[in-house]
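Quick question: who can interpret this fold?

. . .
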Amino acid sequence: MTDTVEKTPAPSVPPEQIKAIPVRHYGRWVAAAVVIAVLVLIGMAFSNADINYSIIPDYVTDGTILSGAWHTLYISVLAMVLGLVLGVILAIMRMSSNPVTSTVAWFYIWFFRGTPVLVQLLLWYNIALVFPILNLGFYKDEMNQVMTPFLAALLGLGLNEAAYMSEIVRAGIQSVDEGQTEASHALGMTQAQTLRRVILPQAMRVIVPPTGNEYINMLKTSSLASVVQFPELIKRATDISSTSLAVVEMYFVACIWYLFLTTIFSIVQYYIERHYARGSSRSLPPTPLQRLRKNLSRWGSFRRPEVAR
């Protein structure tokens, strides 16, 4: 018999630990240093400037400024509603198979998108030079009495906004699959019912984000209404600066109010977009407040973790 010799396995040598050396990003440090230096220079420039910062908080809550902020909010909301309603009508006309309505809608969009808002405001404000008397048959009056600064601002801003909203609405409607329309017609729905109950609710997911951006832009564009003597925020700030000689300070006050209003409506826009995104994703991303609570619960405790025994 042959004796079998059992071989003792060689001891396994553990692999040498890998020492990972992070890559040094010198460019990031240089960029950060440059940005900080620029910010410091800007801060020093404004701190040494001839600006009376102490009066800015007093004028932020001044009655005249509050009136201007209210008129800015008022005219921007009304102009946006007018632009949205006309934009939906123009979008439907643009997609119509009727060549007359589609051509009229195209010409409207071409004209109002191709001319500056400032020119349109001045045209409406001075329209009495062309039509001194407004005669509608059932109503007749002098155009100077009809075309007030408010009406000139509303028409100038709202009609211009309608041209942009029509393209946004048209893009949203065309983003819905044609099979949705065919299925609705197969169920016996009319064209108007299909548009109202099927197409527009699905198109809102595409329409809402640019519409929110357009409204925020409308808040700032409403400052052009000051040229037609509408008492919005810039007009009120200019009136105060003409008597107090605090020109730059009043512009800072106006900037504070514009930042406040745009921030509020940006938050509102976020939650509206989140609402209409429910049909496109199974789980919605956490809101900023939810993320804040999660981070506070994770990092808010300063107790040392217990060591497992």
In short: The longest helix spans residues 63-94.
